[in-house]
Model the fold of this input.
Amino acid sequence: MESVKSQSYEVHIGELAKAALNQHIAKSSYSKIFVLVDENTKEHCLPFFKKMFDGSVDFILEIRSGEENKHIHTCLQLWEDLSNLDGDRKSLLINLGGGVLTDMGGFVASTFKRGIDFINIPTTLLSMVDASIGGKTGVDLGSLKNQIGVINQPQMVLIFPEFLKTLDPRQVKSGYAEMLKHGLIMDKAYWNSLAEKSNFTDAACIQKSIALKNEVVLQDPTEKGLRKILNFGHTLGHAIESYCLDNHDKKTLLHGEAIAAGMILEGYLSHELQGLSKLSLDEIKKIFLTHFEKVDFTDDDIDAILQLLKYDKKNSHGNVNFVLLHSIGKAVTDIKVPEELFQKAFAYYKE
Done:
């Protein structure tokens, strides 16, 4: 399986990943090697990692899993751990976990001693096809997603599809949403093939999604223009995710579940504002609702979700900017949406 070359690093898959890691460690003079895990990856993934890693790990750092722990207080704990264990600027941090852990681990490494090397080993489908590319690191501010962070590249990203066997089906489907998004914004043929697939976790599909995202990031590393298309479904999706995370009477949604709802909603806005055909819109809705349970939104929920849009990272000069679809496979950025269309979009979703 061919590796994918991003800005200053490569994404290696399977046996190539194992070889790349051991070669890198052998030629690097790291003073200490730390591995960051959560309780799930400690149990299910760390034993596999130790078997295929020829080097020695100096310390295992552990945090609690879940988006609710992706905040600065966890970072403070990790910075203190690294300092107390005599971590220095020649240390390496290996992040073994899903997107929450690799986002936060990358941020901790990027800021400790003004930056130490880190390697990401994503263990969920979502983190493999999304967080593995682009160098975005960071944490949430309260329930607001990814408000604090930096863009900084790892030494490498290592993909082991075996880890997907440790996940429950809901976690796997969360990553499927991001894969479908890659097709919607860039590649209609990929969208069509994914929509019909019963097995979307094979290495070829994972590599294709990584390559599509990488194609965008290489052209626009710091999200000044084209890279914004990767946010399709995320403006409303992140608001939905934050709202559900912050309200205990609502079911907490995984990232992909919230983004799936966001893509239907923003698909409707695309139909109204960018000429996405009704046929394509209905196809998008059908595919996502086939795989993702419909979220129940009350009128009060919708009002609260729309209030959260003002915190979206893509906002500029007081405007909420959307990524919309002109057609399946072609996205457009920086679209302003009239407020009256939001209620119509939710009404279409609820139909």
Remarks:
- The chain has two domains: 4-167, 170-350.
- The mean pLDDT is 94.
- Residues 125 and 309 are 27 Å apart (CA to CA).
- The first helix runs from residue 15 to 27.
